[in-house]
Structure formats: structure tokens, C-alpha cells
Amino acid sequence: MYKLIVFCFSSVAALASVKAAFPPPCDSEIYCTGPILQQVQKAKLFDDDKYFVDMKLREAPDVVLSAFRNLSHEFPNTTIPSAKLQEFVSAYFEEPGTEFESWTPPDWHDEPKFLGKIADQELRDWAKNIHDLWKSLGRKIRASVKDHPELYSQIYTPHPVIVPGGRFRELYYWDSYWVINGLLLSEMTDTAHGMIQNFLYLVNRYGFVPNGGRIYYERRSQPPFLTLMVESYYQATKDKEFLRAAIPVLETEYSFWMQNHSVAVKVNGAEHVLNRYYVRVDLPRPESYTDDLELAEGLTDDHKEQLWMDLNSGAESGWDFSSRWYMDSGGHNNSTLREIRTSQILPTDLNALLWLNEKTLASFHRIMGDGDSAARYDQAAARRLAAIESVLWDAERGAWFDYNLVTHSKHFEFYPSNLSPVWAQCFSLPEMGEKAVEYLKRSGALQFPNGVPTSLSDSGQQWDYPNAWPPLQHMLISGLSKLPSEDAKKLAFDLAQRWIKTNWLAYVKYEAMFEKYDVNGDGKPGGGGEYEVQLGFGWTNGVALQLLDQYGATLTSGSQSVFSGLLPPLISAILTLQ
């Protein structure tokens, strides 16, 4: 059904032997490689490296490159002083944002039905405010991007989008799953349809969905949620013609992941195929150029290239960055970002997601009456389930753990992703789900008032403690709520209440929704990582609306009565409004 191509480099020497095959982040000599990018970013003309690579050219690329060469020859070692460099940038580049025109989604309306399901008046008013935010996050790409793509880093897509917000001005891949589910609750079916069509367009162009809507993202993807976006839309509309047209494109994306991101691993004498994040780009990320350069200082060229490849792979995971991807010389993940080895880890959540893709593709083919194709995807899912349970499941601990390709062992640190098969319902025995609930209770991750942290390691990275991220909260809550036991369902509600409470308290204080939150305190945004916390925020809004829809009858903004029996007394006291 698919061709397996295995790239598994357990040594720098192995990586170096194929480095000639590694392409740059994109073909642009301005936005992705070359002396302009290098000098402007190293001069730190802007607080955020992403700012420069989002700027529009005022002239054709060859004119800008020629002007830069002429200017650089006026100075020793062709290094242009910062003041002159700033003048050059001002002369030849426009501020970011000119690639978009204002756009209000035409299918937005005042009173979507789900608002009526929210019993708490404060939360209902807040949900209405979140629903209003879709209007401010709408973007339409100007026709000039289509007509003159060489002047932009923006990738043209034909339909308007809802963006995450803040520095994330453009479309992003996995964020959009929760955005689209929120839009469907807001009865904005046309906007959701347009966003999915954009992703299908990108697969037809690239063979996969890039990380985001910029050319410097052209060589890496993000967690493959497009099949699930199509499922959400189909469940809302039952549009069979849309589904029929989407299926072959979804299969193209699936083939990309199987051909470029799969690894054969032998456990207990049996060989299994699982997937990983793996980006064959061994240069600094243009949007985080100086971060990547500085991190690599003092390393040999081969080690720099491996570091940059694994930083790109970490960015593909969506968890950029986390101690989850660290690997020291002994193969343990208690090191630093300089020892990131994302490509040498088989992630539990990616494989649970791909299993769900396979089951969903099988379901789509059955809807279309193609039993043979459905059977092929069912067989692929069965093989993956066997692999997940052989390689990632730990019966003693009662959870699934990432697998280290270097040490041929599991990483046992806590991450919410350890329960991702519960979300995907990707396990063969009912007791596995219940064991996972007990694992979560023992993990120490439930002791925080505002949600489940992304890890228990305070590494300074944003996908670690004390940050909690909307998609991880939703996957955990959704998975627990599907288990049959009342204990699991209570825990799901408990976590939903905590998450809604911290989102709401932060909104009351800051009048904003944030991309991540701190699990401690009384409602505040998260921090750490490569940039300041961003507000907006697409997936946060989508997750909040989904939880308010699912639990609206019982969630509360301030009354202790709804959840006093579910939380420990200390947490209950912390969560209660003063």
C-alpha cells in the first residue's frame, strides 16, 4: 500500500554521509538562505527574527540581490554596518502585513445555537466574546501575492483564513484543526470549508501541508490533522461530493508521511513500522535564525548540521521546543536544547494520530462504497496498533511512551502525549484505558489548579512545565470523556473546569485569549521559549468553545457548587474567585 523509506541516522557520521541531499528551507536567496538573510538577522535589526522574513520586497529579487552585493563591496569583508543595513532594509522591504487585506467572515452571525447550552451567564457572555474574535482573526491574501509571488514570503492560498494571532500572521497547520472545530460550532461552515480547501490546495502543490503559510516552512510539515479536519466538516455537513474530492488528496498526504517519516524498528524479534518527525534541512530556521546560530556556537560543522536538522524536526512536531526531544550522550532526555534529537524519537502522539488517520480514511472509503480501499486502511491501522502496543505501550506503568531509536528504550518522563492513544481510542483492551487513568493520577500532573502541564520539567522551553497548551488539554479531556468509567468522565469534567476557569480568569484580567497558560496562579498566560506569549488566539478559542459546548450545562465561572466534589480542597480553594 505504501513504499517504506527509512532514514534513521544514529550517528553524526551517518548524517554527514548524506548531507549533500539536504535542500535549503526554500529556494529563495533572500528569505531562506544567502547573505542578506545572514547579515540582517545577525545584526538583530528586529526583536523577532520572524519579522524580517515576513517583509515584502519593494523590487524584484534580482534587483535587491544586486543592490546588496554592490553595497556590501563598499565595506571590509563585505560586512555592512547596522545603520547602513537598516537603510537598505527600509529602502527595499515593506513592513509585514501588506500581503493581507481586511476581511470579515461573511458567514459570521450573532447567535450560534451552542451559546444557549451554556448555563453560567458569565461564561455565556464570554463565549459570545470568543465567538466575536473570529472576525478579528480573519485574513484574506491579496491578489498581488498570486500575481507576484517572488516579492513575498507568503504562500498564496485561494481562500481566506482564520489565523492564530500575534506574530503568527498567516495560516498554520495543526492549529487549524481546533480553529475549524470552533468555526463549525459558530456555524461558520463556509469559512471552515475554505480553510480546508486551502490545505487540500497545499497538498496538491507540495505533496503535504507545510508547517505554515510561508515559503520558509516549505520543507517541513506539522502533525497531520487534515484528515480529521475533513471528518469534522463532513460530520457537520454530510457533503459527500466534498468528501469524494478530498479523499485522493488525503491519501497523498498519508503517503508523504509513510514515505518520508517512517522507521522500521525491531522489538522482541518482530519488526514494526512507526513514524517520527524528520526534516532533512540542516540550516538555521530563517524565522529563528539567530537563535539557531547562537545555539550551535562552538560545534563542529557536522554537529551543527545535525542540531539544525533536529531543531527543524522539533518545529515540525509542533512542540518547539520541549525536553521531550532532548537526548544526552547516554541517550537520556535530561540535557539541554543543544542536545535535541527529535529525529531519533518515535512519538506516541504522532503514531496515535496516524492510526486515527488510517481508521478515518477506511471510514471515508466505506462511505463511498469502496470496500477494498477501506480494508487496506483497516489493515494498515491494525499493523500500527500492533506496533504501538509492542513498542510504545508499557503494561507495568499503564501508559504509552516515546521510543528512543538510539538506546532502543522508552522515555518514561511524563508528557500529556503519553495518553494520546486514549484520545485516539487506539488500544485493543478496555483495561488499557483504565490503566492510563490510574497512571495519570499517579503522575503528579493533576496537582495544578489551572490544567495539566506539558511536562514536569522546568526546562525554560515553552512546551514544558509550567505551561499548559490548549490542544493537549483538549486531547486529554476528550480522551478521558470517551472512556466508559465514571471515574474517567469525572476527571475529564474536572480538567475541563480547571481549563475553562483559567482561560476565563485571564480573559477578565487581560481582555485577551492567549496561546498557552501557566498551570499555577489565578489565570495568567504562559511563558518561556523563543518569543513572548502571543494573544489572539485561534486554537485557544476553538478549544474553549468545544469545552463550553460539551460541558456548558455544568461549567461555572465562580460557583464552587458545580465542582466542589471533584477537586481536592486546596485546588478548589485556589480556583474559587476571590
TrEMBL record:
GO terms for molecular function: alpha,alpha-trehalase activity. It comes from the Eukaryota. Keywords: Glycosidase, Hydrolase, Signal. Its EC number is 3.2.1.28. InterPro entries: 6-hairpin_glycosidase_sf, 6hp_glycosidase-like_sf, Glyco_hydro_37, Glyco_hydro_37_CS. Residues 1-20 form the signal peptide. It holds the Pfam family Trehalase. One of its GO terms (biological process) is trehalose catabolic process. It is an enzyme of class 3 (hydrolase). Gene3D superfamilies: 1.50.10.10. It catalyses: alpha,alpha-trehalose + H2O = alpha-D-glucose + beta-D-glucose. Belongs to the glycosyl hydrolase 37 family. This is Trehalase. The gene is TREH.
